[in-house]
Amino acid sequence: MALTPPVVSVVMASYNHAPFIREAITSVLAQDVDLELLVADDGSTDPTADIARSIQDPRLQVTAHAQNRGACVVTNELISRSRGQYIAIMNSDDVWKPAKLQTQLAVLAEHPECIASFGAAEFIDRAGKLIPRESQSSHYRDIFNKKNRSRGQWLRFFFEHGNCLCHPTLLIRSQAYQDIGLYDNRYRQFPDFDLWIRLLKHHEIHVSPEFFISFRLLPGENASSMTPKNLVRMENELYTLASKFFDHIPDDCLRDGFADLMRHPGLPTPQHKTIETALLLLSPHSTSRPIFSLAGLMALFQLLGDAALEDLLQTEYGLTARDLHDKMAEIDTLRRPDLNALSRSSGYDVLRELTKRIRARLRPG
């Protein structure tokens, strides 16, 4: 092993991707950048690990685990072993574009204020065939096509629209993980979204319009697939994200993203900030209502249990327990579509239908 650390450490957690992992690894090793590629197989029951180990390249290190423990656990271990100045995340079924890392290193050199670089993705099917734009659901068609903005405005976008950053395009300065921590293994659907929220409270990012990756859509198999179980898990995980969405957000970042929605954007006291963030969760601007609204209800419930905050709510915001009672009657948190009926469909039709239904589910009634 070379003593000099590489510029980039690429980490890849793999699981049952025997048909795809060779192409994924090859696309990484083809990058014209000084790198190491750390692959950890997470207890695959197919030949994924054997295929990875058969690739001979001194930059490649492959570890195979007998037990499946989850992508977050394995990815965190790989990040902890990484030696590079930058860390890139790669899925074991995707394919990088040839100049991905070179382009992103240039972006971060040009923007030293940014701690991470992201890009756009094209979508391919199981056979590696490009999925035409007109065949993609509207959700996927433009999900990663976003303009750059400030930290506060990124958080505002997340608040109103959800995640829009393509995880396997990430190139990040390794210092970031030391600053904000690793992926939270309590999340299965949203470990990346949780990390972006934490990251953007303290650091700027850059999103490039170029396609950096061919993202393989495997309906029912991708961790992000809109299956009935995943949809239920998404809602529950989203509630936990909503409950801590504004935790530890700096005042300037909060004002930058949300001043127009606040009663007292000057945030004269910490108590005002606590109230403002609770009321933001109850605002109609989040497309994740009523999930965010439920988090807001719980926050308001707690605030009204504190005598000093209750007095501030009443005198400066005109809110009392009666308003909480009214909100409790308005927000129908437990409405749920017939997810089991959707499971009888298949392929891209179910993907489109599930996407349509979850967006309708999260839209204010």
Main attributes of the structure:
15% strand, 365 residues, Spore Coat Polysaccharide Biosynthesis Protein SpsA, Chain A, 8-stranded mixed sheet, alpha/beta, 16 helices
Descriptive notes:
This protein is an alpha/beta fold and 365 residues long. The protein has 2 domains: 8-221, Spore Coat Polysaccharide Biosynthesis Protein SpsA, Chain A (Alpha-Beta Complex); 226-365, no CATH class. 43% of the residues lie in helices and 15% in strands. The chain is built from 16 helices and 8 strands. It has helices at residues 21-29, 48-53, 71-81, 100-110, 138-141, 151-161, 175-180, 191-200, 228-243, 251-258, 270-281, 291-303, 307-317, 321-330, 339-342, 347-362, and strands at residues 8-14, 35-42, 60-65, 86-89, 95-96, 114-124, 171-173, 204-216. Strands 3-2-1-4-7-6-8-5 form an 8-stranded mixed beta sheet, sandwiched between helices. Strand 2 (35-42), helix 2 (48-53) and strand 3 (60-65) form a beta-alpha-beta unit. The longest helix has 16 residues, at 228-243. The chain is elongated, with a radius of gyration of 22 Å.
